[in-house]
Amino acid sequence: MPQSRKSQISLIDTPYYHCVSRCVRQSFLCGTNTLTGQSYEHRRGWVEARLLFLSSVFAIDICAYAVMSNHSHVVLCVDKALADNWDTESVLKRYHTLHKGTLLTQKFIDGDTLTQGELITLDDTVEIYRKRLYDISWFMRDLNEYIARQANKEDDCTGRFWEGRFKSQALLDESAVLACMAYVDLNPIRAKIAKTPETAKHTSIKKRLHAVKHHHAQPSTLMPFAGNPKENMSHGIAYSLKDYCELIDTTGRCIRDDKPGYIDNTQSPILQRLGLDSAQWLALTTEFEKHFCYAAGAEQMMNAFKRHTHHQRIRGMGKAKELLKRA
Predict the structure, then answer these.
(1) What is the mean pLDDT of residues 73-87?
(2) Which of 99, 108, 288 is nearest to 187 (CA)?
(3) CA 99, 105, 107, 110 torsion: positive or negative?
(4) 275: phi > 0 → left, psi -120 to 50 → alpha, else beta; which?
(5) What is the pLDDT of residues 1-38, one digit of tens each?
(6) How far is 256 from 249, CA to CA, in rounded Å?
(7) Global confidence as pTM
(8) 206-215: which pairs have CB atoms within 8 A and are 24 or more residues apart?
(9) Nearest partner of 148 among 24, 31, 18, judged by Cα
């Protein structure tokens, strides 16, 4: 039975979430329809561009993404504190880039004078908009509705393009976050539509590698890798980008049938810090969705999430003990 969104999102437990959207009616998000031969590859660019644009509007960072033939993956990090610090004008300008707002919010942005009663109403509206700007459901709505309208217009049809609900998984600790990011980045390689991470089009790992190669910097549209944790660490993922890219490359070679390989966790700084061995890591990065449903993380974190979201049980507790027991 479908779970309410509030039972899947708990910011007191984690700001990190893995979201998956899938097409219906045998619709093609991208790729080529084998029955008609029509190519929809250009739609990958639609999704990627929209994702990166939304990250500049919402108080939500993108950690990883991959656009596949009939579904898309994205790992998001909610920054509620950032949204709470925005002033009224910032909230309204951001919201108006996506939605019309109300007559009052438009009057305020235009510089018109508002009465005391209108200002009270405006403040209430601004708080509603502020919450929406760090809400994953609104983020995914503004992504999927836009793509659906574009695709339906191109296909000259109406009706659903996506499944009614996107899948959401809470990533409760750094092991789950890094494993899920790798799982997402390696999607094209597991699907055999790319041979290496740098050739996996419309993925976050390709964008990161391209930025480092050509600009010697991390892409501004993605949540950066901030290096090893230390006091007053800058905003970002607490790992080295170089270590992550090397681990992704090695993992990609291991999961390809024609390039069997082995990850030496004594040589991988990330696996060392996570306390995972190569078998655990490969299981996580190839079967993440299979093993976990609404949440992923160590057993203690899973139990806390279960209490806070009022679940009676959460599938994946056994795998949490097995795969994330030393994290």
Answers:
(1) 97
(2) 288
(3) negative
(4) left
(5) 455 555 578 899 999 999 999 887 556 666 666 777 77
(6) 11
(7) 0.90
(8) 208/241, 208/245, 209/245, 212/241, 212/245
(9) 24
Q: Which distant-in-sequence residues (6+ apart) come within 8 Å of 285 by Cβ?
A: 179, 182, 183, 186, 251, 255
Tokens of 299: 């057993």
DSSP 286-316: HHHHHH-SSEES-HHHHHHHHHHTT-S--TT
Mean pLDDT of the chain, nearest integer: 86
- Radius of gyration of the CA atoms of the chain, in A: 21
Token output for 81 = 């504190």
Dihedral angle at the C-alpha atoms of 19, 162, 102, 124, nearest 10 degrees? Answer: -30
The H helix count followed by the E strand count for the chain is 14, 5
In angstroms, the CA 50 to CA 68 distance is 15
Is residue 143 exposed (0-12), middle (13-18) or buried (19+ Cβ within 10 Å)? buried
Region of residue 159 (phi > 0: left; psi between -120 and 50: alpha; otherwise: beta): left
Helix (H) or strand (E) holding 208: helix 204-215
